Structure formats: structure tokens, C-alpha cells
Known about the structure:
Largest sheet: 6 strands, antiparallel
Radius of gyration: 14 Å
Distance between the termini: 27 Å
Strand order of the largest sheet: 3-4-8-7-6-5
Order of helices and strands: HHEEEEEEEEE
Amino acid sequence: MVDKVEKTDDEWAAELTPEQFHVCRQGGTERPFSGEYDKFKETGDFSCSCCGNPLFSSAAKFDSGTGWPSFTQPAAKESVILRPDVSLFMRVTEVLCAACDAHLGHVFSDGPQPTGQRYCMNSVSLKFRKVDETT
């Protein structure tokens, strides 16, 4: 179970960049190939840029060629919430942070094995923390 983080739009707007607010709090999408984590290869963990909730491991990251960082699975099933999204005039599955309800991106069933999933995330919704590989 993840502890919920609740703030007003004004509080979020004061803490986030305009692009983070648009993507994470208003359900926007960053332009493909524009995010800092698209081609990112370092070893570590990705958390929610709004609240710090752990979301993904670099071990699950792969190059999908779509222009957004993609992962085969979340760090823990409880880290994210999946919900139907028809806002793009097609049926897709939105991925939200389970702690603060930030919009992270969408998940598709065209990813590599073993999961077959492609969690296609916005870089601005993520914050990277390098993990020392020797520990």
C-alpha cells in the first residue's frame, strides 16, 4: 500500500516546472524524442517527479524507438494505477502514480518479453537516482 499525497493545484504549480505541471497534473504529453530519459542508459531507479514514489528500475528499461522512456514493468505493482483513457479518441490505458495520481504516460501490450508490456512514460514525470552497482 502506498501513502497518498494530496495537494491543491496551486501547491503543485508552485513546486513543479510548467511542463511538469502540464504533463503530470493535467494529463499532457511531452514531445517525442525531447525528454532527457529517452536514450538514457545509467543504472538506477526512477521515481515520481512530483512525490518521489519509486516507479521503475533501469533493469526494466528498454529502447522502444517511440521517443519516450519505456519499461517492461513497474518496480512494484502497487507503485502505479492503471485506468482506461479515451481522451485520444482511442482506447488506451493511462498510468498514474499510485501515491499522488500524477499522469506518467500509457501502457501498451506491444513490449518485449517476458511481460509483453511497454510502459511508455514522460521523462518529466520521472526523477532518476543512480544506484551504485558495487553495493
